[in-house]
Design brief:
The structure is a single chain. Helix content is 52%, strand content 0%. The protein is mainly α and 581 residues long. It has six domains: 5-61, no CATH class; 62-211, Ankyrin repeat-containing domain (Serine Threonine Protein Phosphatase 5, Tetratricopeptide repeat); 212-273, Ankyrin repeat-containing domain (Serine Threonine Protein Phosphatase 5, Tetratricopeptide repeat); 277-398, Serine Threonine Protein Phosphatase 5, Tetratricopeptide repeat (Alpha Horseshoe), CATH 1.25.40; 400-500, Serine Threonine Protein Phosphatase 5, Tetratricopeptide repeat; 507-581, Ankyrin repeat-containing domain (Serine Threonine Protein Phosphatase 5, Tetratricopeptide repeat), CATH 1.25.40. Helix 15 (264-272) packs across helix 17 (291-307).
């Protein structure tokens, strides 16, 4: 309101003559506005007075429509209360800013308490900004909404926290002000307090969070700080009493997210603050192959890994597997960590889902240093998954006859892989050459089926040709397995070692049946010519007329297929049987 100088003086004289005991709020308001007008007049002398006088009357007369009662979101919403562009509302904001609670209370009777100015600030925002405690209390009593946000998404609590107005913060929170509301930059009130290092404000916000049940169904301040890699905020929170082991609605602690984000600085900070290491954090470090972080975690809670076999094996797998190249490059760290685990009671023979042991993993990764540690701790060599890597394994302290979940020993799989050196080494360390797996097969069965003549020779020499007639679950001998795969050189070795040529399996197939069915012409030729005049082992001759359990001869099996190999095999048999020339 602006008036001419003469009129201003007359009104001021009138107000001054009013009985001071009456103290009517309207008269106080007139005096207040006149004083404000006097200040404005110097800046706006040329303004039209007739356009300004109605503003005084408008203060009491202005009535706004009812404000929606629905709650606002905890993030900045596009929905705003109607800005207070009228002069009466602007005056209310000025009165609130200047700390006139009695005058403000009188004026609020017919005015919307949640009216906003051009910056979408409410009276509560203005009072919080100016640290007007009594005004804040008045507005709260009158029903001011605590969740309304201004143009930058700040609630009154944001405003108070950014300025370190601790008592205002306390009053607002006691009235139920939301503490996790995000502004337009994704910041909560505690972010703003931390940015300005208002430690007392941080402390009471942390204390309030601990009280509120909602904190257990969402991320805490500490969770948010960790997820933002905000070490400064996390440190301030921890220094001011934040619960380091609080969990969110996913049952995860802040430590889990620090591990997940591979933030070793944050992990150290949380551990130093007393964070408990749980299975989730350890598993996350294992899955991410983060050795440095894992070492930090294990230094605090190694027994967690040792308690749970699955985690322990995954840890070993992480340390040794070939796809963890970054881990394997840290050889000294890997050795130190394994030594620590073994010293603390890790079972060196712990197995994975497929029967692998740490020995297999160390062998796969070509880590003789780790292999030595495992063997010294009593690891057994079973070779379930990676036999090709075990040729140089020291076996002096290993049990060469230990079996995996398929009853296979190291010798079985070394024979299967055709590793002559490994077979020889295992046999020299008292590995049993005639041991059977769950299918009844011996290492000789596997070597014969694979056509590994060198391994067959080593096994026959070790066994002194014993076990040559051993049968597996299908009653097949090593000669059967060599014949059905077409390994002529192995067939010769076995026959020379004394294998019986007409032995039948479960289907009453002879080795000749097996070779004819596969169209292996050279093996068929070898078998039908064996034992004839001029051949070794004369008398151990093939019975060409032998039939299996469905009445088929080897010739009939060869004729049942129409490949060139089968046709040539059938022709060979017919000539031997004098059916054709």
């Amino acid at each position: 309101m602006l008036v001419e100088p003469d009129l201003y003086q007359r009104i001021k004289t009138y107000v001054g003559s009013v009985n001071e005991q009456i103290r009517d709020s309207r008269r106080q308001l007139i005096g207040y506005l006149l004083e404000r007008d006097h200040e404005w007049m110097d800046k706006s002398k040329n303004l039209n007075v007739t356009q300004k006088i109605p503003a005084l009357r408008g203060i009491k007369e202005t009535k706004r429509s009812n404000v929606e009662k629905a709650g606002r979101s905890t993030v900045l919403s596009g929905k705003k209360d109607k800005p207070a562009h009228g002069k009466s509302e602007n005056l209310l904001h000025m009165i609130a800013a200047n700390g006139e609670p009695q005058l403000l209370e009188e004026l609020l009777e017919d005015t919307d308490i949640n009216a906003v100015n051009s910056s979408n600030k409410t009276l509560l925002h203005v009072a919080a900004e100016q640290e007007l405690l009594s005004t804040i209390q008045l507005l709260i009593c009158k029903g001011a909404r605590l969740d309304l946000q201004d143009d930058v998404g700040h609630t009154a609590l944001h405003t108070a926290a950014s300025r370190g107005h601790t008592e205002i913060i306390r009053v607002l929170m006691k009235a139920g002000a939301p503490i996790h509301t995000l502004d337009s930059q994704g910041k909560t009130p505690i972010h703003l307090a931390a940015e300005n290092e208002h430690l007392d404000s941080i402390k009471i916000l942390v204390k309030e969070e601990a009280k509120q049940s909602e904190s257990h169904t969402q991320d805490t301040f500490l969770h948010k700080a960790v997820m933002e890699d905000n070490c400064k905020l996390a440190e301030l929170l921890l220094q001011n009493g934040a619960a380091v082991d609080a969990i969110n609605n996913h049952k995860k602690t802040a430590l889990f997210y620090a591990v997940k984000r591979n933030n070793d600085k944050m992990v150290k900070m949380l551990l130093n603050a007393g964070a408990k290491v749980d299975r989730d954090a350890i598993n996350e470090a294992i899955n991410l192959h983060e050795v440095t972080i894992l070492q930090l975690l294990l230094g605090e809670s190694l027994q967690i890994v040792l308690k749970y076999e699955a985690e322990a094996f995954q840890l070993i797998l992480m340390l040794f597997t070939a796809n963890a190249r970054e881990v394997l490059s840290q050889e000294a760290l890997g050795s130190a960590l394994l030594s620590t685990l073994l010293e603390q009671g890790l079972d060196p023979n712990i197995t994975g889902a497929k029967g692998q042991t740490p020995v297999h993993l160390a062998a796969q990764c070509n880590r003789p240093d780790l292999m030595g540690l495992l063997l010294e701790a009593g690891a057994q060599v079973t070779l379930t998954a990676f036999p090709q890597h075990l040729i140089t394994i020291p076996l002096t302290k290993a049990n060469p006859n230990a079996t995996d979940n398929e009853k296979k020993t190291a010798l079985h799989l070394a024979a299967l892989a055709g590793k002559v050196g490994m077979v020889t080494s295992l046999l020299s360390h008292k590995a049993k050459g005639g041991v059977r797996d769950m299918d009844g097969s011996t290492p000789l069965h596997y070597a014969a089926a694979g056509g590994h003549a060198g391994v067959v020779s080593a096994l026959l020499q070790s066994l002194n040709n014993k076990g040559i007639q051993d049968r597996n679950a299908w009653r097949k001998t090593p000669l059967h397995t060599a014949a059905e795969k077409g390994h002529d050189n192995v067939v010769v070795q076995l026959l020379e070692a004394g294998a019986k040529i007409n032995t039948t399996d479960q289907s009453k197939d002879t080795p000749l049946h097996c070779a004819a069915r596969g169209g292996h012409q050279e093996v068929v030729k070898r078998l039908v010519n064996w034992g004839q005049a001029g051949q070794k082992r004369q008398g151990n001759q093939m019975n060409l007329q032998a039939t299996n359990n469905v009445g088929k001869t080897a010739l009939q099996l060869a004729e049942s297929e129409d490949t060139p190999e089968h046709e040539n095999t059938a022709a060979l048999l017919k000539r031997k049987m004098f059916l054709i020339k």
